[in-house]
Amino acid sequence: MSMINVKVVAIEQVTPLVKHFTFVKEDGSSLPAFSGGSHVVVSLDIGGRIHRNPYSLMGSPMENEAYHISVRKQENSRGGSVFMHENVTVGMPLKITYPVNLFSLAKKGRKHILIAGGIGITPFMSQIADLNRMNANYELHYAYRSPEHGAFAAQLKEKCGDHLHCYIDSQGQRLDLQALLNDQPLGTHVYVCGPNAMVLATLDTARNLGWPENHIHSEQFLSPPTGEPFKIQLARSNIEIQVSAEMSMLEAIEAAGVEADYLCRGGVCGRCELDVLETDGALEHNDHFLTDTEKASCKKIMPCVSRAKGERLVLDL
Amino acid sequence: MEHGYTIKSKPIYGALAWHDKATVHLVIAQSQGGLAVLKLFEQMQPKQPVRVLYAQQDTDYAKTLKKVVPEGLDVLNSEQELLDVLKSIMPTMRMGLRIYIAGSEGFIWSVAEAVKAFGVENADLMKEQTDTLARTIYCVHCKAITHNITTNIGKCSGCGRMLFVRDHFSRQMGAYMGLMIDAESPGELPAIEEIYP
Amino acid sequence: MALNFKKETFREDYTYSNSGESIKRFPFPFPEDQYMYSVNIEPHTKGKPGSVCEFAFDIDEHYVAECLDKRITLEQDPGRYQALPHMMDAQWDFLELTMEALAQDYPEHFSLQKQGLIWTWENKPLGIKDTFTFGDTSTLATEPFDYIGRQLQGDFVLLDHRDETLYADAGIVTSQADWSLAFNVGMSWREWHGPVPRATELGVMDRALKYLLNLQLGSPVRRLNWTMTVNPRLDTSPENYPHWGSDRNTVNADNVADLVHLRVELQTLFRLPRSNAIVFSIRCYLISLKDIATYPRWAKRLHRVQKTMHPDLIEYKGMTKFHPLMVDWLAKFDDGEALTVGTHAE
Q1: Is B124 within 8 Å of A188 when comparing Cβ atoms?
Q2: Inter-chain CB proximity C246 and B4 less than 8 Å
Q3: Is residue B85 located within the same domain as residue B120?
Q4: Distance CA A51, CA A34 (A)
Q5: Is the torsion defined by CA of A106, A112, A113, A114 positive or negative?
Q6: In angstroms, rounded to a whole number, what is the distance separating the alpha carbons of residues A118 and A129?
């Protein structure tokens, strides 16, 4: 997979939990332009083990001198975000993928309702640049815990003006999804990114109000969940690999030196899909990609986020 | 052509059924499509507001519809009149609206075209084909549209060429592709048969 | 190395021909004795020097004549260019991708100077030099996709990525193998490929779609497709079928090797940055049976492929009338020698 060599040129503490990183290309040339809602996967070498985490690009898609990402420190994570917060310093070289967009704006939409919760604001930062450029009809609804956690609220006020609506939890302000989605013109699309409960509530509300499925968009990257260790066999490579408790199957495959496809590493895009040749036990499907029928069939698995519980799992790789 | 082979661009029409999550239902029908509307109301009298636009033609279900649809029924005298009323009510509609169409294929796609202008995409429409299998044909040579072709080969209303009706459908045009049948051997026409009665 | 652009025609008197160099680099599409419809997609990485895959967009000795033929076709039928309104970002993306590639790969013929958003584009073979503002449509005489699409060999379709599929929402198509852009514009992937026999059932198109939805910026892909055309005609459109359809009747045992051409499409796909759309580029190469027989290996291979072709595909590719003549002519080159897998000429 094509990677881009970048270096960190600025780090800023935006809220008590969020740091903002600025990257430029190591050789000084321009970075690729991208579309609003895109992310990159950042590779981190943590004690010899490669972690790859997806982060939304936050800058304007028209600016190709630098990329901007924000990282929320996840205390119970497997270390990627903690490493970004504590070990990544200005001047450090990093490898990132080319931008990928799994959360693009519906170009034919007549109105766009963006709903962000906490760090879920990040993919909207670049979308807002696109929407402003296209002079589009939009509203940004941004909910966060307390004033000090409202990352980028001031910046957003400046960029979005009247399009911005903030909901500060500590001040008792709540976003009323039902009221918001109940009275929107035809051709409206809704987009949500944030905590799981907020994403589910938005999807539910829109569906219950009769919104067609293709007008409802969400992005929710999963961190690979930890679990019990298990073994896998790779049929074509003819090897057996141990997947430890805090490693994902995809990471274990990569650590064993076997090349596997991937894009988002968050259970969304479907690129890393593998065929299951044999399995004796329950597969723990954690992705958003496979349909329920596919999950139940035990014929396919997404190694970026899913795990296994049985003794035997043979993959076509 | 092999058995089991389907042309993926040819629309497959189903039977109308209520979307139970809709906030408003808009039912649009013509001629025998009235029967499809009656079947729809046999399934349920929805709790949400319903608007029915019905264009009378050869077959007329207006009388029965008036009994079954207590409120919100408009009986119109032609497709054009119906489209005019449709265009006048669409600006008041909001997200949550679900649209149901029953009529000939030509009628279905005229309605689809009309509501597209208001931000409703084809994928969001429920459609049932009634009345006739007659096809609307786009002449790929002169770009004219010819309506109501019931035969495997039809004459183009624009350039007069005899067109073979391909099973290839454009939702943007609401038409099948018509390709000159005798370009390779001028004047040699296969038997013309009614296959879209 | 500067290219020697030929003066030739792709209609009426058909003076088109391939030089020895051009035959040698022809993208022969059959690695095996039997043809199976397949996705056969591979990364569009830099090919061998001189090959059609050396650069992102191939320019060859037919460049000037093809651009002229494209202009004639567009003048006669402006409907060969289509762009739905939401594709404007994709249009500029396309212009940037192609101008940068040509200026970098063929510096003796094309140049691109940038001063911020003020760009100056020079196309020496076609005698064009224009300065415009990137992103500002009013600074070009035509839409950006139209402007640069006319200065490239081959056809281009811009695919919008939405609702888990790809929509053909813009195109400039003048050298197509019998499909109509004016009719197909706005169609989804599945509708567009509706008429391909045997492919839908095999699930080939669904697999290809899944692959393309994950196509990445900076990692273009390519595949070859092929058909046979009577006369070296670029515009074998359904629009003009009344003009070229009867050419199929003119093939006989004496002229088959001159008239019947293998038509190979080098199809490349690139993800575009700002629009997240995909460019589908279809670059057409034509070679007569006679020129194919310059290399006996190709003649033998083509003979075996055609002899074992499924009747549905013979019909779909419009070869029914001249197929037996072609197979007969090729038979005399085929001594039955076993051929290794590969498309190489020698």
Answers
A1: no
A2: no
A3: yes
A4: 24
A5: positive
A6: 19
Contact C16, C232 (CB under 8 A): yes
Q: Which of C210, C167, C211 is nearest to C189 (CA)?
A: C167
Q: What is the pLDDT of residues C60-88, one digit of tens each?
A: 999 999 999 999 999 999 999 999 999 99
Select the residue of A187, A210, A211 nearest B119 (Cβ to Cβ): A187
List all chains that touch chain C, counting a touch as 3 or more CB pairs closer than 8 Å.
A, B
State the DSSP H helix or E strand holding residue C168, giving kind and residue range, or none if neither.
strand C165-172
**Position A31 confidence tier, pLDDT thresholds 50, 70, 90:** very high
The closest of A151, A144, A149, A114 to A129, measured between CA atoms, is: A114
Interface contacts A/C by beta carbons within 8 Å: 54
Count of structural domains, chain C = 1
- The catalytic residue positions of C are 223
Q: Cβ neighbours of residue A24 under 8 Å, at least 6 residues apart? A: A6, A7, A9, A31, A65, A66, A67
Same domain, B74 and B159: no
Which subunits have 3 or more CB–CB pairs within 8 Å of chain B?
A: A, C
Residue A256 has a CB neighbour count (10 Å cut-off) of 16
The tens digit of pLDDT for each residue in B45-66 reads 999 999 999 998 877 899 999 9
CA distance C219 to chain A (A): 7
CATH of domain A111-218: 3.40.50.80
B97 and B139 both lie in a single domain: no
Domain of residue B165 covers: 135-180
Q: Do residue C162 and residue A270 have CB atoms under 8 angstroms apart? A: no
| Domain covering A230-315: architecture | Roll (3.10)
**What φ, ψ does residue A70 adopt, rounded to 5°?**
-125, 140
- Complex ipTM value: 0.90
DSSP state of B151: B
By three-state DSSP, how is residue A85 classified?
Answer: helix
Query: Using CB atoms and an 8 Å cut-off, which of residues 145-164 of chain B contact chain C?
Result: 161
- Chain B nearest-CA residue for A189: B95
Neighbours of chain A (3+ CB pairs under 8 A): B, C
Please tell me the distance from the alpha carbon of residue B1 to that of residue C316, in angstroms, as a whole number: 10
- CATH level 3 topology of A3-101: Elongation Factor Tu (Ef-tu); domain 3 (2.40.30)
Is residue C301 a part of any domain in this protein? no
CB atoms A34 and C217 under 8 Å: yes
Chain C: residue whose CA lies nearest to B172? C186
Of C160, C213, C219, the CB nearest to A107: C160
Q: Taking CB atoms and an 8 Å limit, are C216 and A2 in contact across chains?
A: yes
CB A88 within 8 A of CB A21: yes
Give me the sign of the Cα torsion angle A47, A49, A50, A51.
negative
pTM, full prediction: 0.91
Interface of A with B in 164-223 (CB under 8 A): 181-188, 207-212, 214-215
B7 contacts on C by Cβ (under 8 Å): 194-195
- Partnered with residue C172 across adjacent β-strands are C81, C156
8 Å CB contact between B83 and B110: yes
Task: Name, in order, each residue with C-beta under 8 angstroms of C88's C-beta and a sequence gap of 6 or more.
Answer: C137, C143
